[in-house]
Structures are given as C-alpha cells and as structure tokens.
Amino acid sequence: MDIRVVQTSGLGDSTYVLSYEGQAVVVDPQRDIDRFEAVLNESGSDLRFVLETHLHNDYVSGGRYLAKAAGGEVVLPAGAAPAFRHRPAYHSEDLDAGSFVVRPIHTPGHTPEHTSYLIVVDGIPVAVFSGGSLLVGSAGRSDLLGMERADTLARLQYRSVSRLAALPDAVGLYPTHGAGSFCTASGTGEITSTIGTERVSNPVLSHDDEDSFVTQALSGLVPYPAYYRYMGPTNVTGALPMPALKPPMISATDLEAGVDVIDMRPKVDVAAGHLPGSLAIEERNDFGVWVGWVVAHNAPLYLVANPGQDTTEAVRQLARIGFDDVRGVVTDLSDVAEELVTYRLASVDEFKGAVSDGAQILDVRAPNEWDLGIIDDSTRVYVPDVVASTPGVLDPTRPVWVACETGYRASIVATTLEQRGFEPVVLAEYGVTDVLSRLSNH
Q1: Rounded distance, CA 107 to CA 132, Å?
Q2: Helix, strand, coil: what percent of the chain each, to 5?
Q3: 68 Cβ partners below 8 Å, 6+ apart?
Q4: How far is the C-alpha of 317 from the C-alpha of 201, rounded, in Å?
Q5: Alpha-carbon dihedral of residues 345, 441, 395, 412, nearest 10 degrees?
Q6: Is 111 in contact with 150 (CB distance < 8 Å)?
Q7: CA 285 vs CA 58, 92, 124, 224, 310: distances in Å
Q8: Rounded CA separation 16/29 (Å)
Q9: How far, rounded to the nearest angstrom, does the alpha carbon of residue 380 sit from its chain's CA centroid?
Q10: What is the pLDDT averaged over residues 284-311?
Q11: pLDDT category, 187, cuts 50, 70, 90?
C-alpha cells in the first residue's frame, strides 16, 4: 500500500493519495486538483473514491471536480448534505474499493458531520484518515462554527478522539490538519503518526474526564482567518472549477479605481516605493491566507509583483480560498514613479533606541505571542483588528513604530496606517523578542 502526502503548507493541511493493487482513494483535496491528478497518474491506479472528512472551513474543496475528472465517486459524510450529487458515508457502512475496504467512522467535534475513514485490508485495519478529529499531538478545534456551539462540539470531540484511540496500535494516523493550520491550536509539527504513538503521547488523550478535555480544548484559542466563515457554505453548494491562474499583465496606469491592490513584493521593495492605497502582503506560502483575512471575501484584486515572482502560485493560493477575481498583474511601476509613496524600515538597534526614547510602539503579534514578552507601554493589537479599525490610542501626529516577529505582518499594518494618515516605521526582518533581547542586554 502506498500513501502519498500532498502538502498545502500555507494552510497547514495534507491531502492523501492512497493506492493499492491498482485502486486509489484521495482524501480531502483542495480546489487545485491538478496536483492530485498528477499523483494518480504516477501511481497508475484507478480512482475509486474521493473521501471528504467534513465541510472544510479553511479552503474550497476540489473533491467534486477531482471525482468527475478522474472517474471516481465523491464521498461526503451523510450529515453534510451538500447541494450536489455524491455518495453519502454512514457510520460503519463499508465502501468497497475493490482491493480494500473504506469504513466510515462518525467522529463529530471539529464539525457536526465530521467522519473519519478507516482503511481495512483483508479484514485488518491499517490506516485511518482522521481529517480534523484526532491530529498528531492535538485535536481539531471545536470553535470554528461559533462559540455558542463550541462546548457541544468539544464534548463530541472528546468522544470522537477516544473512539479513534481505541483502534489498534499499528493503525497509521493520517490527519488533514497539522502544524500551521488555524484548525488546530497546537501540534508537534509531524504530519502523520500511529494510533499507538498518539495514545501514549498526545495530550488530548490524557484527560481523565470530558470536562477537563473541554476546558483545555476551549482555552488559549488563537484567532482564525475571517474568510473561514465563507468556506463551509461554499463547500455545501459546490464551488465552480478553478479560475485561470495567469491573469493579464497590465500597466499601473490601467488600474481601476475601487479595486484592491495587493503588493506582493518583498518588504524592502514595498517600503522603497509603492502605489498609494495598496496593501503590502508579501509572497510566501500563506500569502492567500493573509489576503483572505484582511480583504473582503472574493473582492476583485490587482497584484503588484517584481518580474520573476511566482504570480501563478499567488493566484492559486487565492483561488483555494475562493478569491476568483484577480484582474491583472503589474510588474513595472516606472510609469507612475512620481506617485509612489514610501515608509521607513528600522533595524533592531534603531527600534530599541526608539523604545528607550519613549516612541509610540504598536505590537501587531497574535495574543498568544504576548507570552513571549511585551515591550512596556506598547499598544498591542493583532493585525486583522488594526486593519478593521485603527486603535484609538494611536496619535497621528507622531510616528508609529510597528513590530511583529519578522516584519511580515508589520508591513501589512504599515500600509494600512499609511492610508489613514499615520507615519509608520517598520521593524523589518526582526521582531519584538529581538528588541526585548537587546534591551535586556543593556
């Protein structure tokens, strides 16, 4: 049996392609199905099922279209009840994949309909695809459908992870969510495991009772991206196929008013000159996540990039979360050079000096990062909250020195504050903990 892992690192998710004796299943594919088609072709196996563990909150599913393209059936939990033809999975009603059996296990908790899939060969359980239920070193969050349902779902999750933990030790554990996913609050960084390993090492399986599990599960939760609220409904109705990944190259003079402009160039380039009103979100593997967090869902967009930057990957990331209207890419700003605006980048020593001099400091890290240390008298507001509303304590007549941990999120905030009349100064390539370290050494 061969199980290939196709990672989507920016989302912290794994998709699995299992093949055995010429038959294959794919578990939890994203919308860009070409990646999974390539693995299927390499395996030489026939697709029997595309297995969806739940109605995903963090991406648009490609299961429906992968099944159609590769000649298999798309399977969803019976309780999902999507608005398109599919094969419903009922608890313990086996699906015959030819050379092996797929056994659905109802594991609600991450979502109400959530279902894991146990792979059985010749009567022996060998692997379980656990989606957002039991994870490596953790369990899927139960608050993504709203805190009013979180307690109920956490109690269901307690029973679900216990159910999976009762499987034989040798059963391989293949979760969809992992480190880097906002669908889990913690984890070891490993992608896969075994039931035996998790039974002795996973802290979510160490609780003596349901109440202690729920208390732990609902404490210390980090904020999750704003676009999540649109993914479940999109996956119920079934999204359209992927849009074109190569939008037209356009001139900066062709930009339409009222369309968001995302500058995906490196931080240094943005600071040295960018279009007024543009938002700095540098290209990296979670570029799409941050756009989806701070820009209205599926708003029309223009991208500003350097020649040679991978705009196809950027558009792919956006499409995975339902942003389908990228109207063009600008790679030359020379025609509007006189209109460009700039802001200062500060070294860690300059930032330390500003702190010592009583400068206005804005810390835009996530609340859980404050445990790593905070700068005295700093204003602490997470990036999405600053974008939504300028902190009232900020004085527009004084520079705002902005920091996170690498300068990535601080750059998003800098361009936001700039649009609102503030003078930002960004700590680039370093973070709050670096400043604190320098302060403690002097």
Answers
A1: 9
A2: 30, 25, 45
A3: none
A4: 34
A5: 40
A6: no
A7: 14, 37, 38, 17, 11
A8: 8
A9: 23
A10: 97
A11: low
Two structure tokens written together for 172:
């391989």
The H-or-E segment that residue 231 falls in is helix 228-237
Q: What is the pLDDT of residues 20-62, one digit of tens each?
A: 999 999 999 999 999 999 999 999 999 999 999 999 999 999 9
Q: How far apart are CA 31 and CA 25, in angstroms?
A: 16
Average pLDDT over residues 124-152: 97
**Residue 441 — pLDDT band, cuts 50, 70, 90?**
confident
Q: How far is CA 384 from CA 284, 364, 365, 390, 413, in A?
A: 18, 9, 10, 10, 9
Q: What are phi and psi of 159, to 5 degrees?
A: -70, -35
% the chain with pLDDT above 70 = 98
The whole-angstrom separation of Cα 372 and Cα 93 is: 48
From the list 200, 192, 205, the residue with the least C-alpha distance to 164 is: 205
Q: For residue range 411-438, what is the model confidence (pLDDT) as tens digits?
A: 999 999 999 999 999 999 999 999 999 9
Distances (CA, A) of 33 to 207, 298, 388, 433: 39, 20, 34, 40
147-165 and 210-217 helices cross at what angle (nearest 10)? 120
Q: Are 199 and 165 in contact (CB under 8 A)?
A: yes
**Torsion from C-alpha of 193, 194, 199, 200, nearest 10 degrees:** -70
Mean pLDDT of the chain: 96
Q: Nearest Cα to 272, choosing from 431, 426, 432, 430? A: 426
pLDDT above 90 (res 190): no
CA distances (Å), origin 208, targets 49, 135, 197? 38, 19, 19
CA distance 256 to 215: 50
Confidence of residue 181 (pLDDT cuts 50, 70, 90): confident
CA distance 249 to 327: 9
